[in-house]
Amino acid sequence: MKIHPHDLLIQELFASAGDEPQAVLDHVLRCRACQRRTRELLHAPPASFIERVVRLDWLATAPADYGTALDRGSAVALRLQASCDWERSEAVRLLAELLEHPGGRRQWIVRNHPRFQTWGLFELLLERSHEENFDDPAAGEGLALLALEIADRLEGFGEERLEDFRARSWAWVANARRVRSDLRGAEEAFAIAFSHLARGNGEPMERAVLLDLKASLLRAQRRFAGALRLLGRAIRIFRQLGERHRAGRSLINMSIVHRYAGEPEKAIPLLYEALDLIDASREPRLLFAVWNNLIDDLADNEQYMEAHKLLVRARPILRQFPLPWHQNRHRWVEGRIAHGLGQDQKAEVLFLKARDGFLAEDAAYDTALVSLDLAALYAGQGRSTEVKRIAEEMMPIFSSRQIHREALAALAFWKQAVDAERAGAKLVSGVAAFLKRARHDPELRFEEPKD
User: Fold this and answer.
1) Which alpha helices (H) appear in 43-158, and where do they start and end?
2) pLDDT digits over 102-111, tens only?
3) Residue 213: pLDDT band with limits 50, 70, 90
4) Is residue 303 in some structural domain?
């Protein structure tokens, strides 16, 4: 069956179908969109469910007796739910077994053992690929490639649907490559993904997800206008499909495009809108990212009172992710807010803690930026000795790390200005602004500010 059954057809199936509605059942078992609609129907209260039963016109002359049909429909529904639950639980077990083997052997197992060639394992591998990209994008790419091996071997699907599965797999391969800065490899993988999608069955959801992921690559390539266009198309599709959570994800992506473009003021309303759309129970880390980025953008836009209010509200969420990098960024943004509100003593303590944390993690850019914030605070207090000490400490630290040449040139210029006692707050903020832009644009060239 190459088209999706209408909602009413699914309802009719469970209200009046016989024991062998194979065409519809086969489709529903393998189609994620129809499974989602089916679950909603199955979870409806019995009275509401009966009221929604379709009464066919040509049977209207006879009294309607749904008792037997509902009994049969309930049995079919239970078999469907049990089949979905079993396949998902089995996928968890299969994945655990698969991950016990080294990477090369995993490919061999998937290719040669049919019990690993299931739709449930395919879906789970792509979900885990997305999760792994946060911490280990190479592992995320490996899981997406395993899913691709399964997509080539799934049985019981039409060729067009298999093309959709291949497109989805290649999209996650591309995204993992983008995260680990292999932009050329990501572009090649996206080209393959779109070629498979063109041969698929035209699923709007598949296209929207692919557009959203491709926009992240365009963002990394600093093709901001193109990224915003793709995200706009993805958001429209997600809204039309009633996919609020996915629309919220794309709004977050759109806000990041504006941040990379140096437009935090345009990111702020998008993040507020995303907060109303995302489902935190589905992706707690996503809610954390929204709060974190929103507070950061407000601070960048010098809306310190609003940033402080949100920081207080978000603390319970932020504490759920106690990784050192996250904690250091919280201290840093809290220090910027305190400095902006005139609480210099508190800001100094927070900046120092954040800088020590970033140094321990070998996070060169973050260490440079928080050091400049600290230097600006000292300069404003007339503490030139401390400013010179920071400048002396920074150069050997960054010369030994992989921070691109133009960023080093900006820091060297700032140190010379400090040595000549010409490094005021305006110069510090200019160098810091350059470093923020250069972080996402390695081609950016530093130009010495004019007096």
Assistant:
1) 46-51, 67-99, 103-112, 119-132, 137-151
2) 878 998 998 9
3) very high
4) no
